[in-house]
Amino acid sequence: MVYLTFLLGTCVLSTTLLNYAWAQGNELAAVRDVGASLNQFTLRLLAETNDQVGDGLNLALSPYTVWSLLTVIAEGANGNTAKELEQSLGIPPNKEPFRRNYKSFSKYLQQKSKDVQLDLSSAIFTTKEQNINRPFQTLANNFYGVDIIPTNFKKLTEGVTTINNYVSQATNNRINNFVKIEDVADAEILLVSTLFFKGRWRTPFNKTATFRDTFYDSTGNKVKGSVQMMYQLGDFPYTILSALRSHAIELPFGDNGKMSLVVILPQKGEMLNSVLRRLSNMPFSYVFDALEVAEQQFAGDLVHVFLPRFNMKSELNLNQILDHMGIRDVLNPQKADLLGIFPHYLFVSRVIHEAKIEVNEEGAEASAAAGAALQNKIPSPKFQANRDFAYFIIDKPTRSILFAGKFTNPTTICDTCT
């Protein structure tokens, strides 16, 4: 099972699948346009964050929470502040259709099933003294589902408790201490976006097949520590991404195939940093299309899958990363123009993000059998993630990325993250 927990304001994710009432025709295309904006922001955020944390640290990100939070802020921005946000977030000049499509996008993502749970929430915590403009409140609530929650920031402990209780409840108690007193000491307003996802593999890994294995860096050298390597032989979409010089595999959650974990594994000798940079300069539809072709053309072909079991957590201040992405004015007290939100000048002092992910074997009870009695006429390909790789939680109907990260260092795996 894969558990993901993250926070931009805040966000939590775990891994299983939802039933999805498929959107048709123009509606689906419009929803996918929103997903494309999210994806392009996601890939740039992942590449920039990877550059900042360096090669030696694992990374867990919930780009959706960052993107959705900044999208709400963009609705109240003016001038160059708005221009920078809109360009970086992929918001088109005509916002009215985008707002409607965003609302539909959020609705489709959250449709429930017994196998997958995905919960999204957003809130603005503000002092009574800050009179948020009524038109902004209406727009934020109607299209983005944002709750306005009065908060007494002058009583710091009380304010922190209010915010952390909201985050804890929204993330099923996976993130319990999101903000600290120093995060809100000078705050007049705090925006929070949360995501919780939990999903079970369509084809679970057999725990008895998990073994201790060596892990290598991009240059082929053994790294300190080892991994608990899960294994199974199964029918999964698998392809080579020649433009990225990488392998890719898709591991679905639940029975309807709506959501999946996509793993991108650089070819031997290829640096993960280089792969992520190339990926940030192309649409993620390249990956979607390649996996769809593989699913259609090679259905029934078995793949040996080796994937580490891992549990990791990232806590980040994203200000410098967003600055590198071109989002500057909103973080600058001399330049920020958020008069669409407030009747006076304020700025975003910090954008904080916490994310957790756990990937393990759990799934249906009969986990050992999947395809075990079948044989290919030729040897099955092997997808062996025993070196640096990137991973993505995707929603296939909307073609959007909800969670992303990288695995590079077994010694920083958190065995006790909760």
TrEMBL record:
Gene3D superfamilies: Alpha-1-antitrypsin, domain 1, Antithrombin, subunit I, domain 2. Residues 1-23 form the signal peptide. GO terms for molecular function: serine-type endopeptidase inhibitor activity. Keywords: Protease inhibitor, Serine protease inhibitor, Signal. The keyword Signal applies. Residues 40-410 form the Serpin domain. The keyword Aminoacyl-tRNA synthetase does not apply. Pfam families: Serpin. SMART domains: SERPIN. InterPro entries: Serpin_dom (IPR023796), Serpin_fam (IPR000215), Serpin_sf (IPR036186), Serpin_sf_1 (IPR042178), Serpin_sf_2 (IPR042185). One of its GO terms (cellular component) is extracellular space. Belongs to the serpin family. This is Serpin domain-containing protein.
